Amino acid sequence: MSSSKAFLDTTILAEVLLKPGARRATAQAAIKRFTESQTPGYAIKEFKWGPFSHYCWLHNKFVTEKVFSNVIAAIHSIYRQRGLQGTALEALGIVAKSIGSRTIADLEAQYGPMAKEDELRADVFRLALKAIILKAWKRRRAVADVVEPLTCYAEIPPNEARGGLIDAHPFDCTLEDSCCMGPRFRSRPNEVEALKNAMEKIRDAKAENRRRYQALRSLYRTPKRPLTREHCRNLGDAVFAFFAPAEATILTTNVKDHEPLASALGKRVESP
Amino acid sequence: MQAVRALLPELLCFRSLGDGFTATVLAALCGLENLRGEIPTVKQVLAIQECIARVTKQPFLSYDAALDMHDLLESADLDPDLHEVEILADVVEQGVS
């Protein structure tokens, strides 16, 4: 195998750390295609406030609702509130046929409430989520070499609060008032301009693009102004295009969003 | 091993013993189910056996000890995670993002 380097984005961290089964295996196999793999400190921050926090939310829903059907109802309610059509909701039907359910139904007569299917299933999911969450946090730095550390961000572990809830806060930087990436971005204004120009063309496609464009424009036009927490969050995929070494391939499940930014700086993007 | 697989769900009815106990039983059960019909290797059988021995000797084991059992199962190439979690989490992510 010739020397090659993968630069992992947050989606790959999430695939490896949070997705059991085939998706984890696919992501791990993709990483193994490269002789070296790196991920920026920003990916850990984005991982925590993004997919990791969603897993914590789901875990906590099982803690508070205690009954599987109530959790499903809560998820349906999110979709209703946001006016989303849920082909994804159909997937919940698959989940309803969870582990050992037929056997468990038979046990209800023998063991009473502890074998009640709806509550047992909620407990099974709660504990499965808890294991995935705690293992993911423990292994977050084991997926790839973490480069470009964020000196303004403390990786504070999730805390099991009273009643079994998992509290993943804080999500933002707590060590410094302004983002430590600001000076690094401003030291390469030509690259910031190229990223800004790339985003300008697609800024109307979705709200996320517009926010990213505004953050890049602010970095470019007001170089003396500190990079705010909001802009740090909004930079998102631009961070990976900017910090990926020239010889590296950005590995992501979201090629569509990364491609315009990476190609603006002459960098490659691949999906697992 | 078939008998173990059939009996493990019954142990979930004793989950009032604690999260450590239940998480270990669940990990062993998922480890077997995720083999999807493949015959377990000797190393895998021994890892499952170790999980059952642990909850038998120390039913009130801590959650951290249960995570050690996860590590043990993974070191035997067993997957102790419940795959259905992924489907549910994907639905949530699509709903909130």
Q: Can you walk through the features of this model?
A:
The complex is a heterodimer of chains A (272) and B (97). With 272 residues, chain A is an alpha/beta fold. Chain A has helices spanning 10-18, 22-32, 41-65, 68-81, 87-96, 101-111, 117-138, 181-186, 189-202, 207-221, 229-235, 237-243, 255-264; strands spanning 5-8, 36-40, 145-147, 159-160, 166-167, 248-251, 268-270. In chain A, helix 1 (10-18) crosses helix 2 (22-32), helix 9 crosses helix 13 (255-264) and helix 10 (207-221) crosses helix 11 (229-235). The longest helix of chain A is centred in the first third of the chain and has 25 residues, at 41-65. Chain B has 97 residues and is an all-alpha fold. Chain B is globular, with a radius of gyration of 14 Å. In chain B, helix 2 (19-33) packs parallel to helix 4. Chain B has one domain (2-96). The mean pLDDT of chain B is 92. The chains are: A alpha/beta (272), B mainly alpha (97). The A-B interface holds A 18-21, 23, 51, 54-55, 57-58, 75, 78-79, 82, 84, 86, 88-89, 91-92, 94-95, 98-100, 103-104, 107, 110-111, 114-115, 120, 123-125, 127-132, 134-135, 138 and B 6, 8-10, 12-16, 19, 22-23, 26-27, 29-30, 33-34, 63, 66-67, 70, 79-96.
List the keywords.
heterodimer; A: 272 residues; alpha/beta; five-stranded parallel β-sheet; two-stranded antiparallel sheet; 8% strand; B: mainly alpha
List the helices and strands and how they pair.
The complex is a heterodimer of chains A (272) and B (97).
Chain A: E1 5-8, H1 10-18, H2 22-32, E2 36-40, H3 41-65, H4 68-81, H5 87-96, H6 101-111, H7 117-138, E3 145-147, E4 159-160, E5 166-167, H8 181-186, H9 189-202, H10 207-221, H11 229-235, H12 237-243, E6 248-251, H13 255-264, E7 268-270
Helix pairs in contact in A: 1-2, 1-3, 3-4, 3-7, 9-10, 9-13, 10-11, 12-13
Chain B: H1 2-11, H2 19-33, H3 42-57, H4 63-75, H5 84-96
Helix pairs in contact in B: 1-2, 2-3, 2-4
